[in-house]
Design brief:
35% helix, single chain, 217 residues, two-stranded antiparallel ribbon, seven-stranded mixed beta sheet, alpha/beta
Length: 217
């Protein structure tokens, strides 16, 4: 299989033959690229396989995974295709690299967070958890997609209190939505705009480290 996305992969430096490892797939924001995500999770590189996925659509000097009709309004067929392609990519990478399929995490910012949350809803317990930074779940995903149970999926949602792209109200609505779906839900806000603060990073790195150590339900 030829994957739909360009990506870079980082294996633990002292990876042992025959061993499998937890994995973090990162998904960047609109107009960004895979390199901009790696620094967020690089401190975990000794304990996780890290795979940074680049969107397949050019946007200025960067990339995106899907296009928009307007802010908060994805073009449905392109969005649907991205979700399908990312599911296929996760399966591809799990076969190609020494990944523990019971310990697969997604971490996304903005457009990447939107896709991470959507993939949690479509893949359910095939994922161990997601980190969604400053995103939301499209209404058509909630109402028209075939959704899977999330009872065993860990979810970390964070949002900037002064987010000028997706107002903080959206963060609270997103948190309420997931709190109704899984007991393994964490929601945090930070005094930031549409970005990731050092405190936010410290919190989700600690969350990932702790969650990885827990038994999969």
């Amino acid at each position: 299989m030829n994957p739909a996305y360009h990506y870079d992969v980082h294996l633990p430096e002292h990876a042992g033959a025959g061993k499998t490892y937890p994995v973090i797939f990162t998904l960047h924001g609109k107009g960004s690229n895979e390199a901009n995500m790696h620094g967020l999770v690089a401190p975990l590189a000794d304990h996780f396989i890290i795979i940074n996925i680049r969107g397949d659509l050019r946007l200025g000097t960067g990339y995106q995974y899907y296009e928009l009709k307007s802010l908060g309004n994805p073009i449905r067929d392109i969005f649907d295709q991205a979700v399908q392609q990312l599911e296929a990519f996760i399966a591809y990478a799990t076969e190609k690299y020494p990944i523990d399929a019971s310990q697969r995490y997604l971490l996304g910012f903005s457009q990447g967070a939107i896709l991470s949350m959507t993939l949690a809803l479509t893949m359910g317990n095939k994922l161990k958890g997601i980190v969604a930074l400053n995103g939301y779940v499209p209404e058509f995903v909630k109402n028209e997609y075939v959704l899977q149970a999330l009872t065993g999926v860990s979810v970390f949602v964070s949002h900037g209190e002064f987010d000028s792209v997706f107002p903080i109200r959206i963060g609270h609505e997103t948190a309420d939505y997931f709190q109704a779906l899984t007991p393994r839900m964490t929601f945090k806000t930070y005094p930031t705009d549409h970005g990731v603060s050092e405190e936010n990073q410290r919190d989700f790195l600690a969350w990932l480290t702790n969650d990885k150590g827990e038994q999969t339900q």
